């Protein structure tokens, strides 16, 4: 199965470099999605541009792919479910929840000169970054790509109710499945509260398991893909 890998804020497609070989060895076709404005110098990129890149990857897949969104990019994966509900085997959301219709994509951090730079480790102290040592933090910060303002402040538009029929797996790194269930039940993710096929998977990691536990993440994603393949066969 094609597994489309979408990185969150400040990540380019190379964020998945340590996940890709393991997924391929497990019999899947991993496709890291290059997002406009995150690694290609397209400072004027918009959320619509990133959505279009994800949909192009979906449309290029020979069968029904699993779409994986990390952190804020959980919304991009969900936008794919909204735009192509009949074309997806499922979505997997790593450490994030999709923004609802009418909400800004990722208006969380200050904009500087038309982009959102990596804000440093202060906002992520605690479970998010506990498994990143000093060297890993330095590498991450050095490679971080500022996110164009047009992406971060882009307004999410969801139109097709059939998205709620797409199977969703919430991958829980810095929080537990029980916590995620409680948050969704409390109304903190109105989109996932309406998902009709919702599952949870745990992984013992911080917010960036593609960096700290790439092999475990690859095995988990392969297992999710195998389950979805059985559903669509």
From TrEMBL:
Keyword match Hydrolase: yes
Keywords, comma-separated and alphabetical: Hydrolase
Molecular function (Gene Ontology), one example: hydrolase activity
Coiled coil segments of this chain: none
Ranges where the AB hydrolase-1 domain occurs: 3-219
Database matches in Pfam families: Abhydrolase_6
Name of the protein in question: Alpha/beta hydrolase
Organism: Streptomyces roseolus
